[in-house]
Predict the 3D structure of the following.
Amino acid sequence: MGTERLAVEFERDDAGGVLLRVSGRLERATAALLDGVFHALRKDHSPVTVDLAGVDHIDSHGLAVLLQAEADARKRRGSVEVVGVRESLRTPRSELED
């Protein structure tokens, strides 16, 4: 523990949409950072795109943050779109790899 890192870059496009570029490990020790960014954007009704191309590991805590952000956006008639998910994060792992 203590070596986990997560970075979130914020960018607004010409149409007002928000792009969040996330890199590092999105897990229990780091998910609060992304959650805080989503909380800061709650009153902003712009569409949000989350680029996970730089994420090399995600656990249930990271997934929960993304799912909650999407649910919150839907309640306020906004949107959260996740893009750039690495194939290695999509492939089921055997118990020996964990």
Notes: The longest helix spans residues 60-75. Residues 6-86 form a domain with the Transcription Regulator spoIIAA fold (CATH 3.30.750.24).
